[in-house]
Amino acid sequence: MEFVDLSREIFHRTHRHPSHPPVIVTVWSDHSEKVVAGATTFSSKALAISFSDHAGTHVDAPVHFDPRPDAASIDQVPLANFYTSAFCLDLSHVPLKHAVTVPEMEASLKRSGQEIRPRDTVLIWMGTNERLLGKPEYEHDFPGLALESVHWLADHGIVMFGVEAVSPAPEGELNFQAHIACAERGITHIECLANLDRVAGRGRFRFVGFPLKIRGGTASPIRAVAIFE
Asked: Does residue 10 belong to any structural domain of this protein?
């Protein structure tokens, strides 16, 4: 059994979407502080972390992009949605800022030798991290899905799809339209994935990415993992 970590680290000033607050990590206590109880001397270290529920590798909850009163928060989404069969499409050749079309998705799917099954998770490697991570352009120049490609995935009955970028579609109006489409079609997406090059083209695997149980959460960081059994 092989485990491939698809998660990004959470650290002080982690890369994130510019509309969300920064990740702040500080030391709350460390081993220089001693506690004495009787004959026992003890020390411990702990961190204080402040972050958006959209920090790091995370999954969006319906309530984030669906304004209807009954839209589910992250603690209300079934856990089964985060333990699914999955595979990864290779679209690492697409240009930056590009909106991936349905024909491009279909061609990549054909090359993969896979078929999209109901309740799949489909990950999409677009070479975003390799080209942009650590640069100012990471927040703006990423490729993503065209609106019709989001609907194409939904037409196949997926649970969710995942990308490396901070948004599922290129920056601007198209990104808002992609979020609205997810609301309309009852699917969601993962953002800020890592190491998709290690799973693209390798066939099916088990995807695991459980969210934190954040009451009313609009999203949650996840530990995204591909398991090849």
From this structure: no
Predicted confidence at residue 17, as pLDDT, reads 78
Question: Three-state DSSP class for 114?
Answer: coil
Q: Is residue 200 part of a domain?
A: yes
Q: What is the pLDDT of residue 16?
A: 76
Whether the CB-CB separation of 212 and 221 falls below 8 Å is answered with yes
Res 125: pLDDT = 98
Q: What is the DSSP string of 151-218?
A: HHHHHTT-SEEE-SSSSSS-TTHHHHHHHHHHHHHT-EEEES---GGGTTTS--EEEE-PBP--TT-S
Number of folded domains in the chain? 1
Q: Which CATH number covers residue 85?
A: 3.50.30.50
The label of the residue with tokens 């024909």 reads 103
Residue ranges, the chain, pLDDT below 70: none
Name the pTM for this structure.
Answer: 0.92
Q: How many other C-beta atoms lie within 10 A of the C-beta of residue 200? A: 19
> CA 120, CA 80: separation in Å to the nearest integer?
11
Residue 5 is assigned to a structural domain of this protein = no
Domain limits at 158? Answer: 58-228
